[in-house]
Amino acid sequence: MLFCMRTTLRLNDALLRDAKRFAIETHRTLTAVIEDALREALARRSRRAPASAAPLPTYGRGGLRPGVDLDSNSALRDVMDEG
User: Fold this and answer.
1) Where are the beta strands (DSSP E) in the chain?
2) For position 83, what pLDDT does the model report?
3) Neighbour tally for 19: CB within 10 Å
4) Which helix (H) or strand (E) holds 73?
5) Cβ neighbourhood burial of 6 (10 Å; 0-12, 13-18, 19+)
6) pLDDT, one tens digit for every residue, the chain (83 residues)
7) Other CB atoms within 10 Å distance of the CB of residue 66
8) How far apart, in whole angstroms, are the C-alpha atoms of residue 46 and residue 19?
9) Gap between the Cα atoms of 7 and 38, Å rounded
């Protein structure tokens, strides 16, 4: 058994007018048009390829400079001001 929940949506007047016209043209209810559009948008989102991390350039060996304390904001600020 499928349960439906009643909800209230605030839609742009022009968008609602277009959706109602589309529902009439396709012989469907406004609810069916909105449900189909939402399903399509959610399916499109899930089909998108996951974003891959952008490659970051590295120079030299990398890593921390000796004596840098990542737990101290003031020490980090001092090191950054030196650069």
Assistant:
1) none
2) 61
3) 16
4) helix 73-82
5) exposed
6) 678 888 999 999 999 999 999 999 999 999 999 999 999 999 988 777 677 778 877 766 666 777 778 888 888 888 778 76
7) 5
8) 24
9) 14
Whether pTM exceeds 0.85: no
C-alpha pair distances (Å), 49 with each of 26, 33, 46, 52: 32, 27, 8, 9
Residue entry with tokens 């469907």? 28
* Helix (H) or strand (E) run with residue 44 in it: helix 30-47
Measured CA to CA, the distance from residue 67 to residue 72 in angstroms comes to 11
Go through the chain and tell me how many residues it has: 83
Domain ranges of the chain: 13-47
| Segment holding 18, helix H or strand E | helix 13-25
